[in-house]
């Protein structure tokens, strides 16, 4: 799916810095940044889910420790 980005100057500058830092084109930098952010968000969602499960599984012990 083709897509056109029209970044504001601040976004353009950030993309230029990323591309220079990674030694890739701005298009490659944009794609890489999207993938890295998607991975980070997925990881954080998994951590939240697992933390909630641990809190549920160990609720009695955690309550006793808190006293």
Outline the fold blueprint.
Blueprint: H1 9-22, H2 26-57, H3 59-66
Helix pairs in contact: 1-2
Strand content: under 5%
User: Rg, please?
Assistant: 20 Å
For the residues shown, what is the average pLDDT?
Answer: 94
- H/I helix tally: 3
From the N-terminal CA to the C-terminal CA, the straight-line distance is 57 Å
The helix/strand class is mainly alpha
- Give a quick account of the main beta sheet: strands, pairing sense, barrel closure: none
Categorize the overall geometry: elongated
Descriptive overview:
There is one protein chain. The chain has a domain at 30-67. It is elongated. Helix content is 81%, strand content 0%. It starts with 8 loop residues before the first helix and ends with a helix. α1 packs across α2 (26-57). 1% of the residues are buried. The protein has helices at 9-22, 26-57, 59-66. It is built from 3 helices and no strands. The longest helix is centred in the middle third of the chain and has 32 residues, at 26-57. The protein is mostly helical.
């Amino acid at each position: 799916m083709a897509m056109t980005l029209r970044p504001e100057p601040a976004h353009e500058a950030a993309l230029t810095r990323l591309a220079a830092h990674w030694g890739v084109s701005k298009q490659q930098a944009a794609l890489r940044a999207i993938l890295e952010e998607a991975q980070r968000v997925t990881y954080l969602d998994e951590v939240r889910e697992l933390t909630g499960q641990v809190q549920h599984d160990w609720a009695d012990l955690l309550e006793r420790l808190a006293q």
